[in-house]
Amino acid sequence: MPTLALLAAALLNNQYLDSLGDSAEQILSKNYKSIRAAQQTRKMLEETRNRLLEQISQTQL
Questions:
Q1: Which domain of life is it from (predicted)?
Q2: Could you write out the DSSP letters of every residue in 35-61?
Q3: Which pTM does this prediction carry?
Q4: Mean pLDDT of the chain
Q5: 61 band by pLDDT with thresholds 50, 70 and 90
Q6: What torsion, rounded to 10 degrees, do the Cα atoms 11, 12, 13, 15 define?
């Protein structure tokens, strides 16, 4: 009987660790996507700023 309980605990632990690993992968994937989106937004903002500054400098000439 103790062997059966130990086996059951090992199986449950394995399932828990698999679930935890899957959750960690999902979190990392979402974080990566968020970082990429933030980088793209920053790039677009910088490009817009540069165009506006260029237009302003041309109108002052």
A1: Bacteria
A2: HHHHHHHHHHHHHHHHHHHHHHHHHT-
A3: 0.62
A4: 94
A5: low
A6: 90
